[in-house]
Amino acid sequence: MHSPAKRLYAIAKLSAGSAISVALTLLGLIFVTFAVGRLIPIDPVVAAIGEKAPQEAYDKMYRELGLDRPVYEQFSNYVGKVVHGDFGNSVFTGRPVLEDLASVFPATLELATIGILIGILVGVPLGVVAAANNGRWPDHVVRVLSLSGYSVPVFWLGIVLLLIFYGKLDWVAGPGRIDIAYDGLVDEWSGILAIDALRAGDMDVFRNALSHMILPATLLGLFSLAYISRMTRSFMLTQLNQEYITLARAKGTSERAVIWRHALKNARVQIITVCFLSYGFLLEGAVLTETVFSWPGLGLYMTNALFNADLNAVIGGTILIGAVFILLNALADVVYRFADPRTA
Known about the structure:
CATH architecture: Orthogonal Bundle
Helix content: over 70%
Number of domains: 1
Low-confidence stretches: none
Order of helices and strands: HHHHHHHHHHHHHH
CATH topology: MetI-like fold
Structural class: mainly alpha
CATH superfamily: MetI-like
Shape: globular
Largest sheet: none
CATH class: Mainly Alpha
Number of helices: 14
Number of strands: 0
Mean pLDDT: 84
Distance between the termini: 12 Å
């Protein structure tokens, strides 16, 4: 049994190794985006100054962008700019891409966080119940629910939810993040409207923001729930077939303790990894959800950037999403080492 000090040292040592891996992976991501930016058939000069600009203006911008320099020098400058958060200006908004990302990412973070909480709080227990009742009706119900979460198109289900709960029943607010009447009533502090409204003590804005959030967050939560419950069921079935489970049952341990205390405890490392990955997928995959609900987040921003051939915005968003995935993987690595001392 390791002492707490030795365990913390081991975790710190492994975390340092993870930090190096994260740095190298981020460098690889930056290289890929640099290469893609040079290979796609979009002239960055034309995108910046327009097609009808005179040749003198074209040549001047060409030099300002550093495109007349060797490729290795261009990449070195590109890395330096990315490290300092300089992704250039967005053609679509006219603002620095970093400012755009800082303004839209909290909206996506808001939806994804609620979605992953739904996925964890509902999906993990459902997966455990399904595994404990393998082959019986609770298992079949959970499997059908998981399959439905994967099979039903996001775009179609989002429209159906809007038609029923907003159009017909009028139980929740419609598309957008907040009604126009409430827009700008609270100061932006965190970028998350519900939190900013609570901080300002404005319950009307809070209720309106929450009402707008319910449908898109529930939709993301459904897909997160489907993935997490299916994977939890698989991990639990593996654990329930192990010899230590048979031994625990032979000793007279209650079935509830066998499932929730022993099997789930040994499956938690894999479940933690899946939850972090699911969170990353929600942050990345909210494009269709944000489009259907006109949610002004990263997904809608990148969709508009793609339609407008806004290369700087697309690359900036891609780097942000990639960095989030890398950091979530590294964080999951640290968390499950704390959760299970055997991995440290």
